[in-house]
Write a structure and sequence with these properties.
Shape: elongated
Structural class: alpha+beta
Largest sheet: 5 strands, antiparallel
Radius of gyration: 30 Å
Distance between the termini: 51 Å
Number of helices: 10
Helix content: 55-70%
Order of helices and strands: HEEHHHHHEHHEHEEEH
Number of strands: 7
């Protein structure tokens, strides 16, 4: 067995520890093989197989099952050697085993919580409506010229007032990534930009550029608002999965925070 093969086998064994226990079969385990008097039961075998091939065990081919059986046999051979008992008492090894154990149980508890506290239709709708209230009713199409100093920005504004072409000035002066494209930012919603920038764009009329430089953490901007349009929010069904995940993550974070607070109060 090569070093790479050993590394892969041991790495996969560690990965088995990250499988959520809730995802494993609860059926009675059968013995798949016996190595040095130790049984490899079907639950452990299937857990390794699912991690190794990233598919349900029931979908595994005979060849894949044969690969897993050989790899698991090698693992059990290594871990049943006399030296393995001595190494298992090494403080670093014991710490790694403890971490793997805690990580597996933690994932099982988290999985159990998420299963028992899935997002309801009412919660999904409430979160969707909450997101809509934070979404602007308009989108803008704009260009900008980003420079390092206020003085240069003011000079560019003076050139624009004298009839200079905005795109050409952007190509020649802008330090931003949109400079080569004439400062084109495409369509965006205000919340996609830093507030001073989006506020300045919202205050303009279509076809108008800023008469004073706009400062952000990126530098000084001269902005041209080209067009505007109504911002059509996504339908609930198109974002249902994302909203559902957000609701459930929030529930879990609240659960974790409650545990933290209780632990802190007990100290």
């Amino acid at each position: 067995m090569t070093f790479n093969s050993r590394s892969r086998i041991l790495g996969t064994l560690l990965a088995v520890a990250s499988i959520a226990i809730a995802g494993l079969s609860t059926a009675a385990a059968d013995t798949v093989a016996t190595v040095n008097g130790i049984d490899i039961d079907s639950t452990v075998f299937d857990a390794y197989l699912e991690t190794r091939f990233q598919k349900p065990a029931i979908q595994a081919s005979a060849e894949e099952r044969a690969v897993v059986q050989q790899e698991m046999t090698d693992i059990y051979l290594l871990t049943t050697q006399p030296r393995a008992k001595e190494l298992s008492e090494d403080p670093r090894t014991k710490a790694q085993i403890e971490l793997q154990y805690r990580g597996t149980i933690a994932q099982a508890v988290a999985s159990d919580f998420m299963t028992a506290n899935g997002a309801t239709d009412e919660e999904i709708l409430a979160e969707y409506e909450a997101q809509l209230t934070m979404t602007s009713s308009q989108q803008f199409k704009a260009r900008h010229i980003l420079v390092e100093t206020q003085a240069l920005a003011e000079d560019l504004i003076a050139q624009l007032e004298d009839g200079a072409d905005f795109q050409e000035l952007a190509k020649a002066n802008s330090t931003g990534p949109s400079g080569p494209n004439g400062g084109d930012l495409g369509w965006f919603s205000p919340e996609q930009m830093v507030k001073p920038f989006s506020d300045a764009v919202a205050a303009l009329d279509d076809g108008e550029f800023t008469k004073a430089p706009v400062q952000t953490q990126f530098g000084w901007h001269v902005i041209l608002r080209e067009e505007s349009r109504a911002n059509e929010p996504p339908t609930l069904e198109s974002v249902r999965d994302v909203i559902k995940q957000r609701v459930e993550q929030t529930k879990f974070q609240d659960y974790i925070q409650g545990l933290r607070d209780a632990n802190a109060a007990a100290d």
